[in-house]
Amino acid sequence: MVTVKLNQETYFIEEKSQLSGVKRVANMVRADLGLIFGRQPIWQSLDAITTDSEKTAIFAATIGQSAYLDDLLNRKMITASEIENKREVYQFQVIQDPWPSVKRALIIVGSDKRGTIYGLFHLSELLGVSPFVNWSDLKPKPETEVTLTDKDNFVSREPSVKYRGFFINDEWPAFGNWAKIHFGGANAACYAQLFEVLLRLKGNYLWPAMWKDNFSLDGPGLKSAALADELGVVMSTSHHEPCMRSGEEYTLVRGKNSPYGDAWDFQTNRDGIIRFWKDGLKRNAKFENVITLGMRGERDTAIMKNATMAENIALLKDVLKVQNELIKQEVNSKLSEVARQIVMFNEVESFFYGDDTTPGLIASKELDGVTIMYSDNNLGYMRTLPSKAIQNHRGGFGMYYHMDMHGGPTSFEWIGSTSVPRIWDQMSTAYDYGVQEIWIANVGDLATNELSLSYFLDMAYDMDHYGSKYPNNTEIYIQNWLKQQFGNHFTSNDLSLIQKVIDDYMLLLERRKHEVMGSDTYHPVHFGESDTVLSKCQEIMQICQDLRKRCPAAALTGFVGLVYYPAVATANLMQTWIYAGKNQFYAQQNRVIANDYGNKVRLGIQRDHEIIADYHQIGEHKFDGFGLSEHFGFRQWSANNNQYPLVYDVTPANLPRMIVSSVTASDYSLGEAWTNQNLVITDFMRPDVTKAYLDIACGSRDSIAYEIINQTPWLHFSRYFGEVQKQVTIEITFDRKNAPLVGESSFQVKSGEAVVDVKLPFRNGLFDYPSQTFIETNDYLAIPATAYVSAIATDEAKFVVLEPYGKFGSGVKVFPQTIDFMAIKERPELNYHFAIEQVGQYELTLHFAPTLPVSQDNHAYIQVGLNENSLQLVDTVLDSNQPFYNSPQWAIEGTNDEKQCQIKVNCRAGLNLLRYIQISPNLILERITLVRLGSQLPQSYLGPTASYKLL
Amino acid sequence: MVTVKLNQETYFIEEKSQLSGVKRVANMVRADLGLIFGRQPIWQSLDAITTDSEKTAIFAATIGQSAYLDDLLNRKMITASEIENKREVYQFQVIQDPWPSVKRALIIVGSDKRGTIYGLFHLSELLGVSPFVNWSDLKPKPETEVTLTDKDNFVSREPSVKYRGFFINDEWPAFGNWAKIHFGGANAACYAQLFEVLLRLKGNYLWPAMWKDNFSLDGPGLKSAALADELGVVMSTSHHEPCMRSGEEYTLVRGKNSPYGDAWDFQTNRDGIIRFWKDGLKRNAKFENVITLGMRGERDTAIMKNATMAENIALLKDVLKVQNELIKQEVNSKLSEVARQIVMFNEVESFFYGDDTTPGLIASKELDGVTIMYSDNNLGYMRTLPSKAIQNHRGGFGMYYHMDMHGGPTSFEWIGSTSVPRIWDQMSTAYDYGVQEIWIANVGDLATNELSLSYFLDMAYDMDHYGSKYPNNTEIYIQNWLKQQFGNHFTSNDLSLIQKVIDDYMLLLERRKHEVMGSDTYHPVHFGESDTVLSKCQEIMQICQDLRKRCPAAALTGFVGLVYYPAVATANLMQTWIYAGKNQFYAQQNRVIANDYGNKVRLGIQRDHEIIADYHQIGEHKFDGFGLSEHFGFRQWSANNNQYPLVYDVTPANLPRMIVSSVTASDYSLGEAWTNQNLVITDFMRPDVTKAYLDIACGSRDSIAYEIINQTPWLHFSRYFGEVQKQVTIEITFDRKNAPLVGESSFQVKSGEAVVDVKLPFRNGLFDYPSQTFIETNDYLAIPATAYVSAIATDEAKFVVLEPYGKFGSGVKVFPQTIDFMAIKERPELNYHFAIEQVGQYELTLHFAPTLPVSQDNHAYIQVGLNENSLQLVDTVLDSNQPFYNSPQWAIEGTNDEKQCQIKVNCRAGLNLLRYIQISPNLILERITLVRLGSQLPQSYLGPTASYKLL
């Protein structure tokens, strides 16, 4: 067994021929080791080493680039057969006596430059250094010595996806200010930080910021591009910036006397545009790039307004032809050797497919060897994916994936809100459809998207472990990720708490993004959904405060940046909106307590500012700037015209006023004879409910005295009388043991002359139905999709439960993900049992994740059947004639994070069997509700909680 | 010429036989004279007088009741032939040497007791004493001496309506508290005040308060009833209290062992109820009464729930028969000599008419000789009126008229809101239909209804001067009334100001009652209607403050009670709601100025309390209690659940935000490229408009700097640049002389990167249409009903312009008011001219006063014709199958004080002729609007201002 010890004495072997990029990375790893052992390893040339058995040498080299390595291989000190001729692979090995003067060494061999770099960072990772050590200022745990043995030897895999990276997008105000404060701009020093994060996460690909910044000019000059190339970072430009020139560059060089002309128009300024592209290609040809092809309008707009499909396609074909020609001239005459991409973002997708009369770009020979980049719906759900017909396209497919958006249906640029289960589901689907060449995530400012990006890049790196064969891997992933970041600093119990906080705040965001949260999102009282969310927010904030108190200084900046800030800021925002909902709702009823909620809203807005200020100052202003994006009350896709919650101020009534209601219902009574003295509380219709809650609120200047008059022996009240200045909540306990089977109880609430008659219909459970049957209460049923009584699989496919997942916490989806069952007779099926009281027509609502149809024919079918009735085929796409993307359905479902599909069904009295079949791919059913026609389910965002289910 | 001088020496001749009521009134007049001359005239018996030529004697007597008078008549010192055998008539005459010891005397002779009383008060009035001298504490002007001559001799008329009076109703909290504070309750001392006001206003009839009070018990005992009888005040009970017993009396005497039984039910407790009635009749038989017949349910509810028409009518017939029988037994065996009434309030009206299968009470012999009391729609508009078929009904007809309501569509119990033009129109209509026996006005607490009640009683007294032959008499009436109250205290200029204030605040109320005013009544910006109302409110308040400063102490209490309080409190309430509308409207747009409006709302609510407190303390708490009724934000007909305006609090945006809009439009622009940079101001499409107004508002924490970029030579701006912290209004002047005939101008408003492009389409007037033609602008036309180009009269009838009148200031109505033109070929007609640009379909809306059909067949027809098209017959009743009263139409029209009737018409390009014909009686057209189909008129309460009209 070989043993090497790493400590203050460890040194790095320097070789003159070492690639400068590898050396740069080695220096980063040296710094990491310095943080651990208190002293950075020194560089030593092999010649200068005198025998010293106690010191361990670290030697990193790339096959074909190192005489020392060749020597070792020649001497069979090591072999490299496992990595030779592979892409981005490394071998990590401890050996004895590699050279006479070196007794013990750690040898890191890369199959190529990036292989060596990943191998170097493997050491840091092994020693407990977070990839975000510098980005988030997360100090590793100091050690005196670490011992490595044969057991630590490791040969890495070839990455699943060829180009894996991120896009710094919409960089103002957040990233832009951060860069300005810390580096004076988005220059090479700034990009050095990003490259490091990218490489530590085993990415290799980057689209630079381009809203107002120019990567190839701001280095200064080409400094950033040269650095990227040195470090093995493959650069490109964003989806609408062809030929390695950023969009803003044209603004800088255009003009009446400019050689580039003065119009971003390939028709009227063909020569100028060609010259502009040619010079860009020439300038960046010496670096490793993926070159963007195609053309859009200026500043990410449609290329031609009011043109036909045929005109657009013809123009684009011409553009592509010219661009390929330019690449041959300026980059490489063997075009097939040049990595190129075209991105089907926005309207470009339709040109790719064409229409009935005009063939799309899809079959154009200009795209031969070009990677076709698909994209998501702006919110992390796939748009179309490669059809079987084009699976063999040379150049393969890529994915441009949004974790940040400046556009519809809503912008989200503040705090990362893309959950890892969503990424797993949709990116594994994409991969299964052949999207394996390029994965790029738009991460906005990157800050607060670290977890999602880590997961995205880890998936891209290793689909053998993160692919569709491994559902529900995200919880363990987060657990490991947190161990990586904070394992040295928090107890395992606290790590669990952090994970809970992350799960919880990401669930809040999975339900509704910050920007589109509103006072009317969650209903203030129905089904208690606001209170449920509110207590979740408060729990998040409380846990975070507690954790922060326990957080060691070495991790504080990282904890605030990666956990505390995004979680607390999210919880505070959600809480503020819920308070606003309650303020406005109670104000309409003239409850004086509305004003207390109004003050909570004001405090919430103030707290939002404080939370951001805290984030900006932590770690000596480490993150200063990153919190600057607007995030309250978007009233269109952009922040323009956004609005903080309006606070409604109530003037109390002059005359004493009691307002009585169920805590979870909108109707209320003042107990006034002229109007309404009646109130019905239906909670006890559900056989497992024994508590209900009554609000007695004051609506007047003067407090009110109330009295509860009850003569029902099985009803008990937490209070029977009192004085109410604002509001009191009375707990009503229903003693089921002493109550009849079915009936209606009642009591009265009196205050002065006001009398409210409260009726409580109730029902005790004695149902002769099979186990797992859901029981209708108050004319509705709510059934989680995972609560099926039986699942029928086929030889080919089966339903898989995804959990945690989506808006409602879980869902069901058929795997393999690529099968369309339309032409297949055998189909997996789920069965549900529910019982209703009376025969009748019901509205059945299927609640899905807001996925899109993945095929261009624009259908997403399911089948539903009730009892012995034949199955009903239903298209969940409302209007197949218009592209789904940018349709009203796209906007509504994306905003609500929910696709709803309504079907009328006839139910019989008693037990019913509901059959559910998924026909089209990429549909995830989350829950099922049934409401008796004619009944009105109280308005809510999450719907009723799951119905009573027999054990 | 006979001359008598009134001064401190004047005395009253006392006669033993003088009626005690007359003597009481004489004492009131003595007190009046005391206020004027500084000393009350003494009583002297004729025997005790020694010759004294300088002293004037006042002698008041009733024919048949005075030996002194008989002696004078015998000696032909006076003759009384003009008044003999007349009802309530007096002769007022100065004579010389009536008796040896009396050289000069004023002789007041009454044809009966009330005649003498009215004659006595005639003296007070002649001396400038207001009828409200004591009620409102309005001191007359002190004089040393007043000379009366033959010219002052006067013989009064016989009143037009036999019973004229008011009903103190819904006495709590206002009147009830006032009575308690000042008299310890609604006892005889309290009623003495009301009787005095009634008699000074030449009324003779009263329904006492009965919500919680009992007139015949609380005197104490019969003291109030006895006093009424003594003073010649005819008493009754309200519409639903038969046989001289108040409703609450039954509550006091009912019980298990009570002789009256324990159920207000003529079927199950027939004997008890009969006994209850019998005892009431017996008790009050000795007084002059009008006895109410019929029966309703307890506390003014329907008599039988869920009973058929036939059952109800049968029951009521039985009731009437029994009641008549009891009256014969207890009051007068000659039933025809007993004044009796039955009131058709609420559902009773339908029993009166019956239905297809059941004849109504209308022809029942039990009603022979009984006055049939009709009633209004609760808001001062007639319901059905006597048809021709029953005009000869013995007992005649009466009217129960509401100037106060506790019921639907809204309660109004605070400040009097019934305008005198409305009273004239509707009561003169009723009179013309034969309603001439009883007029009673529900005046609520009386306070603040003084002017309306004065007018009502003056009409009832003298329909030869206030009848339908004299339209538009109300302005001169108010002028005289104000002279009567304040003539001694204010200059004539100030009196005009007072009249203006009264006209203005009554117009506010004519448009919308206090209780149903809301933040959404007037649109905050459209057509500038809120600003127009707002400046009216501010003008009212300013004038009232100024007048109050100039008001002499002797009139201050009266001025506050009759003018200042109702006007200022009304203006403040209306203003507060308009501020609330602006607060909420601007808050939605995130204008920071919304918060200023919010504070104005808060101040308005506080000011409301202060205004009432001031009213309550003035004149040593003279009116204390009268301001207590709720009056803000009724959300159902009653005050329960009413609500002060909600104030919306805006949090300014973080980033600089400019908000640009036309001052009178809802749409606005932030000048932001992603969203909307355009704004259109259409004001200059109207050829007489040369000014338009632009709001530049700040929506952000930081102020904004703006700049106006204008290159149009005929546009001028009041400011071209500036800094805006809240809001600035820019005046745009359009220099028509230098502008082309038609076109579109434009300018820009810039702030930072924001640019708003403002377009101003315009049109100069060069129209080749006849004079008085209205010109369409922006797809609509608004034409006042009085702006006809020609009016066609018939031999029988013609249109009359009513002005001031109604919601829009004027209207047109056909007179005589009783003609139904359905069967008449010759019809009066009005013609209007208007011009439109393009041929097209328009929605024509006729805006009427919210009158009801007066005949039971429930139609209200008009005819409309356009150009040569045939006339279209339109029923303004939306659903003739349900009774109009209590229908949705009744509620909406009553609340909005407007009946709208929509008709689609085809207009031709150019000049159009609109013909309007009123078919059914009691319809008052106020204005006409036309809107091009497909165009949307901005939402508003008053509609657009009148369109451009050619001179």
TrEMBL record, chains A, B:
MF term (GO), any: hydrolase activity
Keywords: Hydrolase
Listed Gene3D superfamilies: 1.20.58.2150, 2.60.120.1620, Chitobiase/beta-hexosaminidase domain 2-like (3.30.379.10), Glycosyl hydrolase family 115 (3.20.20.520)
Keyword Membrane among record annotations: no
Top-level lineage group: Bacteria
GO biological process: carbohydrate metabolic process
Stretches assigned to the Gylcosyl hydrolase 115 C-terminal domain: 773-945
Keyword Transmembrane helix: no
Protein name per UniProt: Gylcosyl hydrolase 115 C-terminal domain-containing protein
